[in-house]
């Protein structure tokens, strides 16, 4: 059972994309108030209205800046190529908040997915470098957007590795992950090791393409 604080609001930046929309769906279904953020406030509101009708709960939509300001915990689920610019623009709104980065810097070519080099070491480390007044946690890198969005999938069979340097913040995000039925939040180490977790997504994409699956990961013997 999740120990995520009752009434705490989760904002999802990039909440109209597959990953963000899927996470918002699962959080709302768990009874967590959700704000969907997007570059377009109208599009965010439309997605929020549809989600609220499907799963119930408190779901609203706003532009990314407004959503960032409203959330107690803010999930960043935007494309890698817009990651740094978005965080720079929202530095003020995100100050003092727990920011959960689930962005995977990946490239794609004829051979499939591969990890991109990041100057700061990882997307999460880039976020920490930009958001000096926020507490950055890495999580939700390996959860299939297809499964998150599928209303027929009741439980998602996966662990979520949670990485960060603040124990209270990583405990909070582990509880958020565990609010999704079937999912377990597992502490995965310091934020500096997030590059390994982000890069592993390329391997999972290869697994899923070969086996026509939506595989995640499980940590054994816990």
UniProtKB/TrEMBL annotation:
Residues 11-105 form the Pyrroline-5-carboxylate reductase catalytic N-terminal domain. Keywords: Oxidoreductase. InterPro entries: NAD(P)-bd_dom_sf (IPR036291), NpdG (IPR010185), P5C_Rdtase_cat_N (IPR028939), STEAP_metalloreductase (IPR051267). The keyword Oxidoreductase applies. It comes from the Bacteria. Pfam families: F420_oxidored. The keyword Oxidoreductase applies. NCBIfam families: npdG. This is NADPH-dependent F420 reductase.
């Amino acid at each position: 059972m999740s120990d995520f604080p009752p009434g705490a609001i989760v904002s999802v930046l990039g909440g109209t994309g597959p990953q963000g929309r899927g996470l918002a769906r699962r959080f709302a279904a768990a009874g967590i108030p959700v704000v969907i953020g997007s570059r377009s406030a109208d599009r965010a509101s439309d997605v929020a209205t549809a989600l609220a009708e499907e799963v119930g709960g408190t779901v609203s939509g706003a532009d990314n800046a407004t959503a960032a300001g409203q959330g107690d915990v803010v999930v960043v689920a935007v494309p890698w190529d817009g990651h740094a610019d978005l965080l720079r623009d929202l530095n003020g709104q995100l100050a003092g908040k727990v920011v959960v980065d689930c962005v995977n810097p990946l490239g794609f070519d004829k051979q499939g997915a591969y990890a991109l080099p990041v100057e700061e070491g990882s997307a999460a480390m880039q976020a920490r470098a930009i958001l000096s007044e926020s507490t950055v946690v890495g999580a939700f890198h390996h959860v299939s957007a297809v499964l998150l969005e599928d209303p027929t999938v009741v439980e998602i069979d996966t662990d979520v590795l949670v990485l960060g340097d603040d124990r209270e913040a990583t405990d909070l995000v582990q509880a958020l992950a565990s609010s999704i039925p079937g999912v377990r939040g597992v502490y995965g180490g310091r934020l500096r090791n997030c590059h390994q977790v982000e890069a592993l997504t390329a391997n999972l994409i290869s697994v899923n393409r070969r086996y026509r699956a939506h595989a995640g990961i499980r940590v054994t013997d816990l």
